[in-house]
Write a structure and sequence with these properties.
- By secondary structure, the protein is α/β, with parallel strands linked by helices.
- The protein has a single domain, classed as NAD(P)-binding Rossmann-like Domain (Rossmann fold), CATH 3.40.50.
- Helices cover about 45% and strands about 15% of the residues.
- It contains 7 helices and 7 strands, in the order βαβαβαβαβαβααβ.
């Protein structure tokens, strides 16, 4: 089912305080969706919320650490108590960690990467599955990285977390494809001027790569199409 009108739709975007998450939230709001923005930094979320409202959109912020023990369950209870269904779930929050040889990966840091990039993502899917199923066309968008499919030296920890994340999302999509209208898609943003990218490539000029708004717009355009579950796009630009 193609979705051309986002008015009355509810979206939840994680990692929405900056970069791709913020750009996606703003793009969804411009199309008329009410967007719930979550991230750890309340001040940054408030700035995005203010920009959305100034542009005539509608948003609600929910500052929280997705790795805290009961944060996702509390978020789902709060949203489920106010809205009947969730139309768009954009899983964008992630942690890069250190770029280091596999033999030198710090176990404690690796655990943090996996907790946010994988364990918390499964918890989000589980918590919001009932609300996605109540939508007439629920959509889950997973933000990934090329290193999840094509391993690269020194990117083992982050790449492994993204490969596992993709497997999780694709399995979920297969499980519900014949049971509900919910569809899943994986989006690889490619080189984008974000804080995470700057950490990985400190000498790169951000003006030479695409801005997060390009990715946000691409996600909105994808959501307007009647894609099959498991669909994957690489954002050019």
């Amino acid at each position: 089912m193609a979705i051309q009108n986002f008015k009355g739709k509810l979206a939840l975007v994680t990692g929405a305080s900056r970069g791709i998450g913020a750009a996606t939230a703003e793009a969804l709001a411009r199309e008329g969706a009410h967007v719930i923005l979550t991230a750890r930094t309340a001040g940054a979320l408030e700035e995005i919320e203010d920009r959305i409202h100034a542009a005539g959109g509608s948003a609600t912020i929910a500052p929280m650490d997705l790795t805290a023990s009961d944060s996702i369950a509390r978020l789902a209870d709060a949203i489920g108590g106010r809205w009947p269904a969730l139309d768009f779930l954009v899983l964008n929050a992630g942690m890069l960690g250190s770029l280091t040889p596999v033999a030198q990966i710090d176990g404690k840091e690796f655990g943090k990467v996996l907790t946010l990039n994988l364990v918390a993502q499964q918890a989000l899917i589980a918590a919001f599955d009932p609300m996605l199923r109540k939508s007439e066309a629920g959509r889950l968008i997973a933000i990934t990285s090329s290193v999840g499919m094509k391993p690269r030296a020194y990117w083992g920890a982050y790449g492994a977390s993204k490969a596992a994340f993709e497997t999780l999302v694709l399995a979920y999509g297969d499980e519900i494809a014949n049971l509900s209208p919910v569809r899943t898609a994986i989006v690889n943003p490619g080189p984008t001027a974000t804080k995470m990218r700057a950490k990985a490539y400190p000498g790169e000029d951000p003006a030479t790569i695409k801005q997060p708004a390009v990715v946000g717009d691409a996600i909105v355009e994808l959501l307007k199409t009647d894609f099959e579950t498991g669909h994957r796009i690489d954002v050019e630009g």
